[in-house]
Design brief:
The chain has 135 residues and is an all-alpha fold. Helix content is 71%, strand content 0%. The chain contains six helices and no strands. The longest helix is centred in the N-terminal third of the chain and has 30 residues. The radius of gyration is 20 Å and the shape is elongated.
Length: 135
C-alpha cells in the first residue's frame, strides 16, 4: 500500500481501515529493517576467493551484527566498519582474538573485549562525523 493511500485512509473515520493501514505500515517497516539487516550480514561476510575469513574474525563480525553495532552503518560500509574493528582489536587487544581462536568459543572476557572495541569505534566514528548517524 502506498503512503498516499495510507494518508487518504487516515482521513476516513473507519477505525478498522485505520488499524489495517497501521498494520500494513508496521509490516512494511519491519520488512525494510530486516532487508537492511540481511544486507549488512551479506556485506560483512564477503570473502575473497581462496582467502577464508578466520573463525575469530567471523565471531567478531556476527557478534557485532547480532548486538546492533552495525545498525547505524550503511550496508555498503559494513565491511569497512568491521575491517576497522578487527584492525583495532588486533592492535589494542589481540588476546581477544587469540582466545577465540584457541578455545573456539566466545567467552565472557572475549565478549567484553569485542563490545568495548566496537563501542569505541562507533564513538570515534560519531565524533568524526559530528555526531550524525551513518544511516
Amino acid at each position: 500500500m502506498a503512503l498516499a493511500e495510507v494518508l487518504l485512509a487516515c482521513s476516513r473515520p473507519n477505525p478498522a481501515a485505520l488499524l489495517a493501514n497501521a498494520v500494513d505500515i508496521f509490516v512494511m517497516l519491519l520488512l525494510c529493517r530486516y532487508e537492511a539487516y540481511s544486507q549488512r550480514i551479506l556485506a560483512s561476510l564477503q570473502q575473497q576467493p581462496g582467502h577464508p575469513v578466520p573463525l575469530e574474525d567471523l565471531v567478531v563480525i556476527l557478534f557485532g551484527i547480532q548486538n546492533g553495532f552495525a545498525d547505524t552503518i550503511h550496508p555498503k560500509d559494513v565491511g569497512n566498519f568491521f575491517a576497522e574493528a578487527l584492525q583495532h582489536i588486533r592492535k589494542e587487544n589481540s588476546k581477544v582474538l587469540a582466545d577465540i581462536a584457541a578455545s573456539k568459543q566466545l567467552t565472557a572476557a572475549s565478549e567484553k573485549g569485542i563490545r568495548k572495541a566496537l563501542e569505541l569505534l562507533l564513538k570515534q566514528r560519531g565524533a568524526q562525523s559530528g555526531g550524525a548517524s551513518a544511516a
